[in-house]
Amino acid sequence: MNMKTSNKSIVQHIVKQCKSQGIRHIVFSPGSRNAPFAIAFDNDPFFKTHIIHDERVAGFYALGISQLLNEAVAVCCTSGSAVVNYFPAITEAFYRRIPLLVISADRPKNLINKGHGQTIMQDEIFGKHVKTFESFEDVKILPNASIEICNSKLELLYQEPKGPVHFNIHLEEPLYETSIVDNDFIPKKNNISGNHSESIREVIKIINGKKTIVLCGQNSGGTELNNELVQFNKNTNVLVLNENTSGLCDNGYINCIDRTLNSIPKEQIESFIPEILITIGDAIVSKKIKAFFIHNPPEHHIAINYSSIGIDLFHCLETHLKTNPNDFFSQINNSDLIRNTINFESKWKTIDLNAKDRMPQFFSTENSATDIHAFYLLNEYLNNDTILHLANSSVVRYMQLFDPIKSIAYFANRGTSGIDGSMSTAVGSAVAAPHKQHVFISGDVSFIYDSNAMWVRPFPKNLKIIIINNYGGSIFRIIDGAKTSEQLENYFEAHHDVDVKDIAKGFGFSIVEVDKLEDFETSISHFLNHENHQILIFKTDRIENPLALGRLFKYLNND
Q1: Is there a domain that residue 188 lies in?
Q2: Which of 50, 193, 236, 501 is the most exposed place for a label (fewest CB within 10 A)?
Q3: Cα-based distances in Å from 554 to 87, 272, 358, 360, 551
Q4: By three-state DSSP, how is residue 139 classified?
Q5: Mind listing the pLDDT tens digit for each residue in 209-229?
Q6: b/e for 59-76, b at 16 or more Cβ within 10 A?
Q7: Distance between CA 535 and CA 444 in Å, rounded?
Q8: Does 95 reside within a domain?
Q9: Would you say residue 295 lies in a domain?
Q10: Does any domain span residue 185?
Q11: Are residues 371 and 513 in the same domain?
């Protein structure tokens, strides 16, 4: 079958290789210099193209598609400052090992820094935040060396640790000319995996019969790993500490780390320290567990992660296995590991269950229209099989105080933990999985910061947005130091009087807003199950918010 495409050989080859690597989704931002790519991708029915005007939104939107489908996604922009606006999403993808291909169109090299418009130094602009970079020239016949470089560098998207790749293409005018090519091509998705051959025999000897904690960070794994971890957790000397962004869930885990750590008597801390700490997955949200292990280091820290970045979180790393945690725990479960010699798990579980049982009692008497009460009700009424997207930074921390719901998938941009792009990421994920209900929970500052995400058209109807509006960055009223500073209101919290309702209305959204506690419960139930409105706003008391959180921790601590 013949197909119309751009007449530029480098464009034709990159498009062909994207198809070969199974890159189906291409996120475009309108421009002129990237016109050859728009022509080529749009004319090939294999690709699904998305048009996002704001490049910062586009980068996170692509990240949202990739994290949901677990496949590489490409973004394509024109020359100049457009490519710089990808940077926040690229750093997030780099630290979360998400495969994004950046295709940036550029002016010819001889025009750089000569005063031409939309021209900056785009080559290697992302520095060390991409796995690899390549610059390509616009030539009639593509050299074999360029073909080999293009192919080999695209494969790096899939090789562990996965991550972003940047191609910068110097394109000559004219930009809009076309040619006809043969489209008889069968795509084959690249399925390159990392080396899983590391022996764990020595590690089994190290952990044999000792008090062991497994700490699960973001994107630790799925059902297969969960099954292996549940089996390993049956050992009484083993405890699993889990965060809701890990992709894992079981009643046998401790899933609310801060809630449990808060309730451990200070005089008993030493007996809760493991001899062995095994970490899997990526970012850890809990500041309390970071402080716990930094001040109380285990005898041995074993990290199981393909990445070498960020794994020595507690400054006591001794063993790093670049292997799949599924294989690791499978081999341990099938070994002759000494089990059930110490009842270490019960110490933690007793504290955890007591704190969990006291949560409903607290909220039965707490009558404040605060953030913590809104999150309590959200966890009561979230529907099964929801895909939940959490903005930074107080939102993801509040959610971790409540036990995860097994049928819900939790996502958050914890690679760099920035407030930029949270809503854009949720929008991309909702577009990628239109048959699922998606819920995005955000603070007002994150929502305002990423409000251009509402510019996406068509906006996914399966995404509901919940805004906790406390008129500022409430996290700074919780953090020690910031909350007592004279600069709190202006410089840290950045208190404002912007009406988020008016911003949403400006983009054509229907909104329901509540500010009384007695309306919180009925509004969230109706909004999630019956309401046609797409945005729900809880107005909470910014002064009372940190006080209510303090009361909760004090109550859970039996004080």
Answers
A1: no
A2: 193
A3: 41, 20, 11, 14, 5
A4: coil
A5: 899 999 999 999 999 999 999
A6: bbbbbbbbbbeebbbbbb
A7: 12
A8: yes
A9: yes
A10: no
A11: yes
